[in-house]
Inverse folding.
């Protein structure tokens, strides 16, 4: 029991170390603005941002913006990641599918996110559809690329061992290829989720009346830097929280891995 308590204490200390740098930045930020070195109108101090945050939370606007943006990201991410897993599995397991599909996807991947916006607005209007599609595009390519790489980099010896035990077809895929590709898949999912939040902002900055991207636009048009910075901070917190959830899920599903943990030092 004693070693377990010691481990928990060390883990708590290690996690709290991540708050050290943000705390130093916040204190320095407040001091610099209060000293008059930077205009409070252009860079409001953290205490003023807290006031704005409480005001937005109190009238319900912040909760509404967060709920709308989070729902858009969730739907777009699930669609994009789901399609990427299906297409990635097909391309990774079939050389013919790779020859037919991969060059096109590699070309589409190079298109900047903002280049899709005018086309999606022309095709789908200004409702929810173009925003969801843009987020799905952002989530698709990282998941696709990492999943394909994970499948194609499966150790040949594992496949040979599976053949020795009579694994063929779908059984070989389920018992060998999928578990071996899962670490790459989760890397793609985490990257895709991060890009989903970025593509969300691109969508909401141009055509939205609600959401955190709209809050950024509203702050810019009204000259309120506090609104802009609060929206940025909330986006950062939401992105970090969603990434942490995916990482927790990865740790639980892939706890069978026997890998070196450099964090133990």
């Amino acid at each position: 029991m004693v070693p377990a308590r010691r481990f928990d204490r060390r883990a708590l200390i290690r996690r709290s170390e991540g708050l050290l740098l943000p705390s130093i930045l916040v204190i320095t930020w407040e001091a610099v603005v209060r000293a008059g070195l930077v205009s409070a109108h252009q860079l409001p101090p953290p205490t003023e941002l807290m006031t704005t945050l409480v005001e937005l939370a109190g009238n319900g606007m912040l909760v509404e913006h967060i709920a709308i943006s989070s729902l858009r990201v969730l739907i777009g991410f699930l669609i994009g990641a789901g399609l990427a897993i299906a297409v990635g599995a097909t391309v990774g397991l079939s050389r013919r599918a790779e020859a037919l599909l991969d060059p096109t996807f590699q070309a589409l991947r190079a298109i900047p996110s903002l280049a899709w916006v005018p086309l999606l607005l022309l095709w789908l209007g200004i409702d929810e559809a173009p925003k969801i599609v843009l987020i799905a595009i952002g989530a698709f390519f990282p998941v696709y690329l990492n999943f394909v790489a994970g499948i194609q980099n499966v150790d040949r010896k594992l496949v040979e061992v599976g053949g020795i035990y009579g694994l063929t077809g779908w059984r070989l895929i389920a018992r060998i290829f999928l578990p071996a590709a899962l670490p790459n898949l989760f890397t793609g999912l985490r990257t895709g989720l991060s890009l989903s939040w970025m593509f969300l902002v691109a969508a909401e900055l141009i055509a939205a009346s609600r959401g955190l991207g709209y809050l950024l636009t509203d702050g810019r048009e009204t000259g309120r830097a506090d609104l802009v910075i609060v929206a940025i901070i909330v986006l950062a917190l939401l992105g970090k929280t969603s990434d942490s959830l995916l990482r927790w899920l990865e740790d639980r599903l892939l706890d069978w891995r026997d890998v070196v943990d450099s964090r133990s030092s």
Remarks:
- Residues 95 and 170 are 17 Å apart (CA to CA).
